[in-house]
Design brief:
mainly alpha; Arc Repressor Mutant, subunit A; elongated
């Protein structure tokens, strides 16, 4: 009985992943209002009934994707002591990059959606709030200065990830994490080498 349940669970996960990846691919090609259930089911190679077994419609799918990604990033950040991570962010960035690298098909489409995607905005907002909470007790900057700095860092970080995916991930997860870590805490001078 347990083996049958595991098989069903894997099938459900595989089907939902196909739906999610199809939707992300379509989002990278056209506006959300132009995407139909038929577009998703054709690309995911499932029938409409299968789609409706899991979702009432496209917006329920979007909510699940957004909440799932945000929860995954948040769980990862909750494992870390953010104060320590601020001194050496490499480990956190390596783990964040690892999340992205764990499902390259989905995230490669996701990062070509654009910077104004609700999902990217939710993730950036969550990262900013977590970081801000860790910083407030340690620094004397105004909330406006902190917001500005964090917007710069996280928006830049996501732009780097977008470029990494669109360029075929030529750098390793370790290299991209180290580069972002260096830029975040040493600025551009941290990576530029003069002759």
């Amino acid at each position: 009985m347990e083996t049958v349940q595991k098989t069903l669970d894997r099938r459900i996960l595989r089907t939902k992943r196909a739906i999610r990846n199809a939707f992300a691919k379509l989002l990278s090609e056209k506006p959300i209002n132009d995407i139909t259930i038929r577009d998703i089911t054709d690309l995911a190679e499932i029938n409409r009934k299968t789609f409706y077994n899991y979702y009432k419609g496209i917006y329920e799918l979007i909510d699940e994707i957004e909440n799932g990604v945000v929860e995954q990033f948040e769980a990862l950040l909750n494992e870390k002591d953010f104060r320590e991570s601020m001194e050496d962010p490499y480990d956190v960035l390596f783990k964040l990059t690892g999340v992205l690298h764990s499902d390259p098909e989905f995230y490669s489409h996701f990062f070509t959606i654009g910077a104004n995607s609700n999902l990217i905005l939710k993730i950036v907002s969550m990262l900013k709030e977590k970081t801000k909470a860790a910083l407030f007790s340690q620094i004397e900057n105004s909330p406006e200065e902190i917001d500005l700095a964090l917007e710069y860092v996280f928006s830049g970080m996501f732009a780097v990830f977008r470029n990494w995916f669109s360029s075929g991930q030529r750098q390793s997860v370790e290299e991209i994490s180290q580069t972002i870590s260096t830029i975040c805490f040493q600025g551009i001078n941290g990576i530029i080498r003069y002759r």
